[in-house]
Description:
The protein is of the alpha/beta class. The chain is built from four helices and five strands; from the N terminus they run βαβαβαββα.
Amino acid sequence: MREARILVVEDEPLVALDFAAVLQDEGYQVIGPARSTDHALDIIGRRTRLDGALIDIHLPGGTVDPVAEALQQRGVRFAFVTGSGHEAVPERFREAPLIQKPCRLADLLKAVEHLRSH
């Protein structure tokens, strides 16, 4: 078991459940899913340890920027997940990995492994 804690920030319930199930099947501990910017910030503020995060770019309740900033301040690596193109990624976070939705679950796992290895 990997014991890594991965925050899932995704407002679409079925997508969030799919991501969580895949990660759990691979031995990750899923934190969340957070379904809004405020929910994600609340989780980030309460967690002592996060080992990575998958963040949907389009969330209700504001932009994704505060979530990415909070993770960055804590030194938590993250990848964006979106059905939009790379242009949807906030400019200052363009170096973060991008996973296109719909995604293959193998690509999702590869991205999480990449987050943990760097």
